[in-house]
Amino acid sequence: MNDLTREKALAALRWLVECGADEATGDTPVNRLIASTPEPPPVPAPTARSVVREPPVTRMLRQEPVKNEVPAANSNAIAAACGSLEELKAALATFDGCELKRHATNLVFADGNPSGGIMLIGEAPGADEDRQGLPFVGRAGQLLDRMLAAIGLNRQKVYITNIVNWRPPGNREPSPEEAAIFLPFLHRHIELANPKLLVLLGAVPVRHLTGLQGILRHRGRWESYRCQTSGREVPVMLTLHPAYLLRQPAAKRLAWQDLTAISQRAKSLGLA
């Protein structure tokens, strides 16, 4: 092939192309009558991936609820064993079944007079409540005090608590899982305080204690709460949360209607 001239080589190539030989082949013969199966691409070797898991505190600061590892059944047993409000408060203080406790400052148990016959239930502690360890002491609490005073009541005549007893980060709403953990304590709290009248402040306590959705649709109506141990029926007024009234002052006229109804029922029960 060394003496093959350029012209002869080109002529040979043209002849091959005209004969249909349009691809180059190697030195090894290939049977073109058998369909070739392409080899699968090589599978890359697995590489180790580092899975970065957010620590609970990061999720909490991002205001996302953290799922609790302790089931609600544990709080059921602990709450049922409490025979007084003092025992219930001590049980809540040592209860580690909710992530909220790890990022709050103080347990917010209750305030007011447990023998007053009127029990108010809110949503959750805020920043002021977390610092002082008492419910409704911030701006919403100050408005609540004025609302009670308008119908002749005060903290010496009513008893106040929340659905959850530790502050959710960022004042977010407690998650359904968090509320489920605390509900057995709340049911026991109601049993031990033995009120004659319950007032639910806002959508969260209404949802978790009555199952009703939408506070604006249901506020101003009377419902009934059945005590789990005694079976006693307690009248329940559904009304707006003071924090909502701070954001929507026009709704105060609706709250006044509810307060009037509460005052009338309290008088009929000999509570005011």
The counted number of beta strands is 6
- Name of the CATH homologous superfamily: Uracil-DNA glycosylase-like domain
Number of domains: 1
CATH topology: Uracil-DNA Glycosylase, subunit E
Coarse morphology: elongated
Strand order of the largest sheet: 1-3-2-4-6-5
Average pLDDT value? 85
Unreliably modeled segments:
46-71
Strand content: 5-15%
Structural class label: alpha/beta
**Radius of gyration, whole Å:** 36 Å
What's the helix-strand series? HHHHEEHHEHEHHEEHH
Count up the helices. 11
Q: How would you sum up the major sheet?
A: 6 strands, mixed
Distance between the termini: 120 Å
Q: Give the class-level CATH name.
A: Alpha Beta
Task: Offer a few descriptive terms.
272 residues, alpha/beta, 40% helix
Structure description:
This protein is an alpha/beta fold. The chain has a single domain, classed as Uracil-DNA Glycosylase, subunit E, CATH 3.40.470.10. The protein is 40% helix and 11% strand. It contains eleven helices and six strands. A six-stranded mixed beta sheet has the order 1-3-2-4-6-5, sandwiched between helices. α3 runs parallel beside α7.
